[in-house]
Design goal:
By secondary structure, the protein is mainly α. It contains eight helices and no strands. The chain has one domain: Double Clp-N motif, CATH 1.10.1780. The protein has helices at 7-22, 30-41, 45-48, 73-86, 103-118, 126-134, 140-147, 152-161. Helix 1 (7-22) crosses helix 2 (30-41), helix 2 (30-41) packs antiparallel against helix 4 and helix 6 (126-134) packs antiparallel against helix 8 (152-161). The radius of gyration is 15 Å and the shape is globular.
Amino acid sequence: MLDAFSMRAKQIVFAARFKAGERGANLIDVEDFLFGLVLEDQGMLGKNLFSKLHDGQGTLLNRAPSHNPFFSQEEAKNLLTRIEALQTQLKPIELSTEIPLSPVLEHAFRSAKEFQAHFHYSQIEPLHLLAAILAQESSQCVKLLQEYGITREKVLEQLSGATEN
C-alpha cells in the first residue's frame, strides 16, 4: 500500500512507527499517525523525532517536497501536547521490531485512497490521510481536531483548492 503514498506521507508513516515504538505500543494507532502528520506538516520531523536517529543527512527527510503548512504553529503546538497527553507510556520497542497498524489506521489508509482518486492526485498525500482520519467521528483524535476547528470539510476544501506538487 505504501507504494501509493507520496514521500511526505511515507515520512509520516515512519514517524508514526517511531512514535509508537517510543511509547511501547503494540499497534501503530491514529494518535501516533496524527502526531507524525502534525510534525511533518510543520517541517519538524528532523528536529523533533528523527534527530534521535540521525542528523537527517541522506534520509527521507531531504527528499520530500516543500509545502505550505495546513496547521498554524499554535494549533500544531497544542495538538502535539494534547496527543502526547492521550498516550500511555510503556517500555520502548526497538526500531527493528515490526509494529502492525491498528485496524482503525488501516481503514483510514484505505479511505485515503478514495480521496486520492476523487481529487485526481497521482499519490496519497498527507491531507488525504487527514480527511480519512476525520471521517471516523467517534475517535478521540477527531474530537481533539474539531476542538481546534479542524474538520473534514475544511480539509476537503483545502484539497479541492490545492494543486498537486
